[in-house]
Design a protein that fits this description.
Length: 258
């Protein structure tokens, strides 16, 4: 093997006539000599291949010749279209049986026993189940409602007054006061608010202008009784807050609420 490699490399070094004889127009000889050149050294084969290579014409890519790679797209198998396709008659389902008929259940079906998705308990975050859905109102809207005469600023303002005046459309878990429009408080008398929650800046601005913010815990039943008292024959007592709600009320107290 080594002798043949040396012989071929000496042949290509000494003879330039071979390159002229087997020129670009002789395609079979060109491919043949490309295979022979693989026995030569790396530098010699590189020189030989460059001199004997066939230049392919450049074809620009257009809409007419563009296509996907081979195997990227394949036709959908048609079922039940005769025996010649291999998927006729039973269409790959076999004869009779549970899976051959129409209406067999989904992949989670376990033959009638309780599936694993129901056997195992739910675990993980369910934030929406415990998140309080407050109805938000800013101080500029409260100022607007007072200017329209819908709210009396000399009385304590509760969630019922805010709902009846059109400040919020509904109350689910209470009303929260936000601080946008706090510059209008200088044009109002001191406000006394009784709501479920308030932001820290809103509490600070209201107290700066002589008002107070009282955060009161109410569940959905007492909120409904406050918004629609005619549906209850007697007033309800305020419920005892849960431990998590006590922590929130203490946090609001640290911010300056009562």
């Amino acid at each position: 093997m080594l002798k043949s490699q040396k012989l071929l490399s000496h042949l290509f070094k000494s003879s330039n006539s071979l390159k002229n004889i087997f020129s670009k127009q002789f395609y079979p000889f060109n491919a043949y000599f490309k295979n022979i050149a693989s026995f030569c050294t790396k530098s010699e084969s590189h020189r030989f291949n460059n001199s004997m290579s066939i230049e392919q014409p450049y074809v620009p890519i257009t809409v007419l010749n563009i296509k996907d790679n081979k195997g990227a797209r394949f036709a959908k198998t048609k079922l039940g279209r005769g025996p010649g396709s291999g998927k006729g008659k039973t269409a790959g389902r076999g004869h009779k049986g549970f899976k051959a008929h129409v209406g067999n259940p989904n992949r989670h079906y376990e033959g009638g026993q309780v599936p694993i998705t129901r056997r195992l308990p739910k675990h993980g975050f369910r934030r929406n189940a415990i998140k309080l859905r407050h109805s938000y109102i800013n101080l500029d809207k409260i100022y607007y409602l007072i200017q329209k005469g819908r709210i009396n600023p000399k009385e304590p303002i509760t969630g019922k007054h805010i709902l009846w005046s059109g400040g919020v459309s509904k109350i689910v878990d209470g009303v929260k006061i936000l601080s946008r429009g706090c510059e209008y408080l200088k044009d109002l008398p001191p406000l006394h608010l009784e709501v479920s929650s308030a932001s820290e800046r809103a509490i600070e601005e209201i107290k700066k202008h002589g008002g107070t913010v009282t955060c009161v815990y109410k569940n959905k039943l007492t909120l409904r009784a406050q918004a629609k008292p005619w549906k209850f024959y007697k007033p309800l007592l305020d419920p005892t807050p849960r431990y998590k709600m006590v922590k929130k009320l203490l946090t609001l107290e640290d911010k300056g609420a009562m």
